[in-house]
């Protein structure tokens, strides 16, 4: 009898162990099933888009060689820090040549310009159905440069400077300006007609008077830098930025506008400053049609106006007033 009770006890104990084990396996299976369902739910959940969406595409910029260093710097920073999927190509055909590429079917997205758009260019845009937005990006100072060893012409008046380039200026040699200066031929140089800098000089400084036929006009600013740096009798004009980046091989002429000489600098270049007579705004023009159709074009335009004053100084430009930049940003935001 005791033996039977003992065997029954063992059977009940074994059954209890078996039931506990089965229950544990069931819990483990259920736990695994819940994890899988949770992971699946996470995978299928649509996450909200980030405020700064990743964009892709190409932005094409051409135009002014003067504005080129600023726009190239902005493009570089934008592609690195803002939108790695957007390629911004910046070229420098010159303001006028750039407008020809801009005002065309499938033309460029932006045209940099060191002058305002002309009436005939604006009319061409209308004919093509292209809406154009002018964006003022910086202030530039027209700068006259000479050889570093030229120790006689480091200070001149506007009249003396223009006489060197004018057909009827009566100046061929340095001694024609001042008899104490060398009796040597002056080699006058500057950018060619493709550049807004040439047009600003011709229209605003020379008042559309004819240049001398022997003024050496070049397409590339780097060529002008090399020519003047190798010629003690050379003199050229271009944007302040090209002087700043080549101060080791060039000397800037200080200009006496009537109240003492003024050296072009970021402190004096301003529309109401000491160098105002030789100061001009520079621009980039936006194809608004492209900006409305391509999010990355508009995004780059907004980035430019948000950051021009950050990079203006390091590329040789004086900044525009903050309120002007903010107004343009607001205009661009309204295109979204």
Could you walk me through the main structural features you see in this protein, from its secondary elements to its overall organization?
With 336 residues, the protein is an alpha/beta fold. The chain folds into 2 domains: 136 residues, 3-Layer(aba) Sandwich (D-Maltodextrin-Binding Protein, domain 2); 140 residues, 3-Layer(aba) Sandwich (D-Maltodextrin-Binding Protein, domain 2), CATH 3.40.190.10. It has 11 helices and 12 strands. The strands form 2 sheets. Strands 1, 2, 3, 4, 6, 7, 8, 9 and 12 form a 9-stranded mixed beta sheet that branches. It has a 3-stranded mixed beta sheet with strand order 5-10-11. Helix 6 links the parallel strand 6 and strand 7. Helix 2 crosses helix 10 and helix 10 runs antiparallel to helix 11. The chain is elongated, with a radius of gyration of 34 Å. The relative contact order is 0.16. The N terminus is likely disordered. Its main location: membrane.
């Amino acid at each position: 009898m005791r033996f039977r009770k003992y065997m029954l006890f063992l059977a009940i104990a074994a059954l209890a162990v078996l039931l506990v084990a089965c229950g544990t396996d069931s819990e483990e299976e259920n736990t695994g099933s819940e994890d899988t369902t949770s992971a699946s739910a996470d995978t299928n959940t649509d996450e909200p888009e980030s405020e700064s969406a990743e964009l892709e595409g190409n932005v094409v910029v051409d135009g002014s060689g003067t504005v080129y260093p600023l726009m190239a710097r902005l493009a570089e920073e934008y592609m690195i820090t803002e939108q790695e999927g957007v390629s911004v190509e910046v070229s420098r055909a010159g303001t006028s040549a750039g407008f020809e590429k801009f005002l065309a079917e499938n033309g460029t997205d932006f045209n940099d310009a060191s002058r305002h758009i002309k009436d005939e260019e604006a009319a061409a845009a209308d004919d093509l159905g292209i809406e154009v937005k002018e964006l003022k990006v910086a202030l530039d100072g027209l700068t006259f440069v000479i050889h570093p060893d030229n120790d006689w012409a480091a200070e001149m008046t506007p009249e003396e400077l223009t006489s060197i380039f004018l057909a009827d200026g009566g100046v061929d040699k340095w001694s024609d300006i001042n008899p104490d200066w060398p009796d040597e031929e002056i080699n006058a140089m500057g950018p060619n007609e493709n550049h807004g800098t040439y047009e600003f000089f011709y229209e605003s400084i020379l008042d559309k008077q004819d240049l001398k036929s022997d003024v050496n006009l070049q397409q590339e600013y780097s060529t002008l830098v090399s020519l003047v740096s190798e010629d003690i009798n050379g003199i050229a004009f271009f944007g302040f930025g090209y002087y700043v980046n080549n101060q080791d091989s060039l000397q800037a002429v200080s200009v006496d506008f009537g109240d003492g000489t003024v050296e072009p600098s970021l402190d004096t270049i301003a529309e109401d400053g000491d160098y105002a007579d030789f100061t001009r705004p520079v621009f980039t023009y936006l194809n608004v049609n492209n900006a409305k159709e391509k999010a990355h074009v508009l995004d780059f335009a907004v980035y430019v106006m948000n950051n021009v004053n950050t990079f203006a100084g390091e590329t040789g430009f004086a900044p525009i007033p903050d309120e002007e930049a903010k107004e343009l940003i607001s205009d661009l935001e309204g295109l979204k």
